[in-house]
Amino acid sequence: MITGGASGIGRATAEAFAAAGARTVIADVDEDALRRAVDDFRIRGVALEALSLDVSEEDSIVSGFAEIRQRWGSPQILVYSAGTGARMEATELPLERWQRVIDVNLTGTFLCSREAAKLMLEEGTGSIVNVASVMGLVGGGVYPNPAYQTSKGGIVNLTRTLALDWAKRGIRVNAVAPAFVRTPLTAGLLDEPGMERKLVERTPIGRLAEAHEVADAILFLASDAGSMITGHTLPVDGGWVAQ
Description:
The chain is α/β, with parallel strands linked by helices. It has a single domain, classed as 3-Layer(aba) Sandwich (Rossmann fold), CATH 3.40.50. Helices cover 47% and strands 13% of the residues. The protein has a seven-stranded parallel beta sheet, sandwiched between helices. Helix 3 (58-72) runs parallel beside helix 4 (95-123). The longest helix has 29 residues, at 95-123.
């Protein structure tokens, strides 16, 4: 089950999992995007399921996982890819914008992990991969984004604590920390004059990440190939945090 699965990293991850033979459910709050994604995948011969889900609402998450269990059984893998940001100076950031970012990025991660784990623990196995960010591993970037960076840093430590809580009960919990990726979420940012050049200059490998590269890292962590890895946040960043 992949949140934010209708676009960006989530959609690329859905494609990677489906290609690997997994029965894949994409969840998203944007129902139009969900329909487009399902139709596009089916045209290309990729079958997946879709679920309308608002990760900022606890009731939606609880009922969503209940529907998953009823329709498809307990999930073996959860990928939390839903996210949002608020590029503003801290002194200009309204509480409601701060709270929205925390609700979607951090609280949503916790609630989906909680509900997925309830089902996984019954089976004695499961793998959770959260999408954090290099901005959760460093204090600064090329512009102020305190709510986003705080939420992603929270995901990094939430990943650690849940991994330790569930390590002896069959559930692994990891995260990826991408640098800047070409997605619908970053399209407006990359269209700003000079912004892409600044981001590329900050990336030692000399280019932006592509969504499929993040998806491949998620697939690795979720799969048996990563069976001894838990509590880890894997940067997919072209060397960003090594500087």
